[in-house]
């Protein structure tokens, strides 16, 4: 329910973008789109860049997702894509290049009214294996899943083979909540009593979402803990450009890797990657 209408809207936006029905690029405009959890921080970067370069405006195209943004870039409907995954071999062979610019804690979260403050790997495995999980106080838990092909699903599945299988079982279980986009997931977590799911810390911070991030195995999902390696999960963000990027694209990409942009990214819940390499 939470994802059906947004899925239609997202597919419509992607179709119109690829078909050229989205308004054409204006002079001095860069069109950027892709992974939804990264867009809040990108809007802050775009505003800062515009102050330095008033002749250039960054237009953020929402509701495309990582793969949708890359596809739109390949079709010429975007000038730059933001992805939460590295490029596939066929995308690289097609002339695309990607530069990692930040990473953010990937967190397990609950509805704000849930009193629990942390979860362990054993508890995660247990709740995914249950058809009707409950919280310690006996109240109903509603697990909010992401599509099986989504980056968030992949990150959870990588924890262990047992959790990968439990997650597959949960996807096959009738009546589960499925959130198509990152924003859908946070909305479901905010509105559904007893909800449990995942999110990127930067998405929570930049959109001021009312959810409760959980400690994992006793470790808080903070930037400090991520930087020193004690918190294990992160979402990586890449700027993807075509074979022959314009000077404006190269300049904005360079700005995103600058110390000034790094301060913005950090305040937005990211660890900036100031010395990055193409992937």
From TrEMBL:
Span of the signal peptide: 1-26
Keywords linked to the UniProt accession: ATP-binding, Nucleotide-binding, Signal
Entry keyword annotation includes ATP-binding: yes
Annotated PBP domain residues: 23-258
Pfam family, one: PBP_like_2
InterPro entries referenced in this protein's UniProt entry, alphabetically: PBP_domain (IPR024370), Phosphate_ABC_transporter (IPR050811)
Coiled coil: none
Single GO MF annotation: ATP binding
Protein name stated in the entry: ABC transporter ATP-binding protein
């Amino acid at each position: 329910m939470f994802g059906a209408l947004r899925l239609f809207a997202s597919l419509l936006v992607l179709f119109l973008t690829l078909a050229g029905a989205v308004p054409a690029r204006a002079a001095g405009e860069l069109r950027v789109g892709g992974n939804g959890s990264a867009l809040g921080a990108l809007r802050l970067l775009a505003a800062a860049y515009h102050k330095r370069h008033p002749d250039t405006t960054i237009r953020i195209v929402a509701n495309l997702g990582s793969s949708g943004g890359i596809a739109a870039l390949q079709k010429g409907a975007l000038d730059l894509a933001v992805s939460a995954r590295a490029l596939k071999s066929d995308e690289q062979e097609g002339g695309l290049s990607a530069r990692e610019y930040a990473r953010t804690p990937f967190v397990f979260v609950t509805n704000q009214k849930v009193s629990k403050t942390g979860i362990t790997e054993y508890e995660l495995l247990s709740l995914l294996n249950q058809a009707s999980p409950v919280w310690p106080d006996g109240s109903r838990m509603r697990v909010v899943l992401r599509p099986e092909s989504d980056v968030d699903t992949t990150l959870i599945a990588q924890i262990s083979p047992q959790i990968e299988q439990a997650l597959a079982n949960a996807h096959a279980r009738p009546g589960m909540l499925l959130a198509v986009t990152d924003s859908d997931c946070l909305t479901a977590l905010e509105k559904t009593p007893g909800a449990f799911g995942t999110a990127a810390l930067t998405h929570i911070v930049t959109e001021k979402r009312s959810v409760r991030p959980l400690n994992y195995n006793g470790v808080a999902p903070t930037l400090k803990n991520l930087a020193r390696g004690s918190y294990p999960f992160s979402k990586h963000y890449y700027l993807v450009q075509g074979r022959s990027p314009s000077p404006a694209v190269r300049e904005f990409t360079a700005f995103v890797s600058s110390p000034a942009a790094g301060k913005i990214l950090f305040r937005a819940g990211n660890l900036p990657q100031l010395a990055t390499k193409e992937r």
